[in-house]
């Protein structure tokens, strides 16, 4: 249900506008989140108006029809689940503010979103990616160090870009990463990443990009710098990964694929699931367990391809 036509031009009810303001000021939701809520609720309100209903007269049966029509339209389960979540939150707000006595969403069944398995690189593809970074100029050294560190640690791209020199213990080969909610974790890295970082921090590497005067105070401590001497941004780091991915023949490579690959290869080689959870900074073990499914799928693929009687003739 795209927000087009009447829905795009619809003037939202005052209560919905106040709800969006409440999300921003009381719940601290980001601007992008508020925009998504606005689009989903505008489409919901328009759908209700077409059926001579509104947010105060809608009942459970009508909401079930709403979900069913979204599913019949071929909308992705994730989109329907997101919109239903926005509708639920709105109706809970209306009850909390005593603008409506009941919540018609309470017994509406949720939409199951299939758990997609991450698509890790093979170990050969990782080698191809890392080998494609050639040259000894400062930018090549930086790119090699960034890619090696991402794969070695499973760091999120924001964590890598946020690194300061004091976060790396070169002798012990440890890096301090600050994850979601500023949660700190210490992650080891191996010889390959250590060698790439040593090259980057050598006199012909990072020092060449150091400007005569730092534009921002914290840039001086940044591990990864851009060509102008500022801290490498998340967007620029994404571009580094994608550019070298294309050179290695890996389409649409993202930093998160390197994180997936790190976790999957650790499990492939016998790492304990709890250890991988700690290394990746997952709050719950269930988040990490998706990688066990990936490893099982890879195991089954190898079996089917290699065992002489895996496929009946």
SSE topology sketch:
Elements (H helix, E strand, L loop, with lengths): L4 H5 L4 H12 L5 H20 L9 H13 L4 H20 L26 H9 L6 H16 L3 H5 L6 E2 L4 E5 L5 E5 L2 H11 L4 H4 L24 H14 L7 H14 L4 H8 L4 H22 L7
Helix pairs in contact: 2-3, 3-5, 7-9, 7-12, 12-14, 13-14
Low-confidence sequence ranges: 1-9
- Just name the CATH architecture of the largest domain: Orthogonal Bundle
Distance between the termini: 47 Å
Count of individual domains: 2
Which fold name corresponds to the CATH topology of the largest domain? hpI Integrase, Chain A
**Largest sheet, described in full?**
3 strands, antiparallel
* Beta-strand percent range: under 5%
CATH class category label of the largest domain: Mainly Alpha
Helix content: 55-70%
CATH superfamily of the largest domain: Intergrase catalytic core
> What do the pLDDT scores average to?
88
Overall form: globular
Query: Could you give the order of the helices and strands?
Result: HHHHHHHHEEEHHHHHH
Strand order of the largest sheet: 1-2-3
Radius of gyration: 25 Å
The total count of helices amounts to 14
The tally of beta strands, per DSSP, is 3
Class from helix and strand fractions: mainly alpha
């Amino acid at each position: 249900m795209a927000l087009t036509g009447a829905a795009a031009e619809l003037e939202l009810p005052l209560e919905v506008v106040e709800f969006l303001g409440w999300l921003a000021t009381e719940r601290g939701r980001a601007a992008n989140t508020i925009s998504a809520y606005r689009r989903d609720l505008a489409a919901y309100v328009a759908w209700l108006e077409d059926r001579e209903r509104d947010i105060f007269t809608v009942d459970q049966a009508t909401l079930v029809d709403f979900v069913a029509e979204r599913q019949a339209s071929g909308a992705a389960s994730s989109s329907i689940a997101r919109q239903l979540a926005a509708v639920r939150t709105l109706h809970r707000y209306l009850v909390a503010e005593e603008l409506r006595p009941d919540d018609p969403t309470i017994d509406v069944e949720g939409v199951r979103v299939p758990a997609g398995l991450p698509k890790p690189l093979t170990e050969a593809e990782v080698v191809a990616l890392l080998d494609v970074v050639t040259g000894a100029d400062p930018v090549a050294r930086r790119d090699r160090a960034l890619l090696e560190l991402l794969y070695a640690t499973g760091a999120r791209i924001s964590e890598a870009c946020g690194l300061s020199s004091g976060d790396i213990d070169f002798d012990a080969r440890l890096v301090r990463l600050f994850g979601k909610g500023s949660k700190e974790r210490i992650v080891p890295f191996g010889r390959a990443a250590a060698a790439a970082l040593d090259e980057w921090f050598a006199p012909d590497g990072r020092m060449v990009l150091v400007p005569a005067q730092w534009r921002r105070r914290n840039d001086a401590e940044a591990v990864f710098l851009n060509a102008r001497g500022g801290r490498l941004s998340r967007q620029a780091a994404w571009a580094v990964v994608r550019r070298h991915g294309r050179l290695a023949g890996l389409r649409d490579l993202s930093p998160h694929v390197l994180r997936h690959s790190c976790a999957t290869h650790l499990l492939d080689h016998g790492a304990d699931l709890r250890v991988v959870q700690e290394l990746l900074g997952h709050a719950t073990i269930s988040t990490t367990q998706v990688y066990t499914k990936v490893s099982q799928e890879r195991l089954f693929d190898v079996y089917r391809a290699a065992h002489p009687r895996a496929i009946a003739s």
